[in-house]
Amino acid sequence: MSPRRAPRAGGATIGGPGSRADPRRLALRALAEIDDGGFANIVVPALLGPSGMSERDRAFTTTLVYGTTRMRRALDLLVDRFVLRELDGPTRNALRLGAHQLHHLGTPAHAAVSATVAVAPPRSRGLVNAVLRRIAEAPVTWPDDATRLSYPDWVVERLVEDLGRDGALAALEQMNEPAAATVRDDGYTQDLASQWVALAAGAGAGERVADLCAAPGGKATLLASEGATVLASDLAPARVALIAENVARLGASAARGSVAAAVADGTRPPWRAGSLDRVLVDAPCSGLGVLRRRPDARWRVTPDDVGRLVPLQRRLLRAAVELLVPGGTLIYSVCTMTAAETRGVDAWLAEEHPGLVAIGHLGGPWRAHGRGDLLLPHDAGTDGMFCLRLQRAG
Predict the structure, then answer these.
(1) pLDDT at residue 21, as a whole number
(2) 335 flagged as catalytic
């Protein structure tokens, strides 16, 4: 996929002047934008905003786009059994959209086929009609788990190797389900796994805490609600602006603690060595634990990303350790499940900083994983997450 582009301008007249805002028509528009490099979580809201759709149709559109994007490898197998020529992008997306309704959503065949044909490119409506009717009638045999679950081969192979077959397949199955929204008491929407990481930091009133990779500010504002003074930094000014917006919206600065947002490189933080009680490193990672809420990410992340990000994770941790007061706490978290980014980083820390002592395991639903804890998506219906808590020698 090419780099992200902004969604093309459009409103309620999806598909041309005078046409009605239809969920399937808008879904096809969104799928084209995603093929052109857009991210689903940006494209879909941008198209839904001016559409004038009811809440029900907006939800259905999101389901169509996220599900079709997520399951496209499986959908292509369903389609390609009955296609003998190369397909252009709009036609393939129409077939994927129809096949998703038939196979995964359980939409009655007559409704899925007729409604999808109606929004397909006029030149290919006959083909779309014929292929979808064949898909509705024919049983399917999957060649392997990666195709059935619709992931790149390397993702399945890596997680099976790192988690064992049963754990990996259960996690991958769970990440094909839509992510439920969890709203905190203050109104901020944040997955429970991320909330639990912030709370596991154990920050208390009056403590100074750094969040070195803080955007968009969910963990920082939760730490502040526990009474801590939080120094929240990120490298990109736009992302720091997002932290500041969330702080202002939630009123975290007027809560028990406070949040100060700053543009800073987490590998070279601007704070004095030995001055902070706790440091949270929610590090950039391969993101294999959040694929349910980022449907296009599974097609963008590569095996090289893991090897590229581990050195960055180490540099962030090396800088974080220097910030801690004697007896201070380091919290390392990643929303992924690879051994290299979890147990591997833990093993490196144990060798690099033998003075860091594990605080203890979090307990259920977390699984002990090295000196830290791993939360698989199917353990509690959350994102996949790793959390490691260590204390600097006093």
Answers:
(1) 82
(2) yes
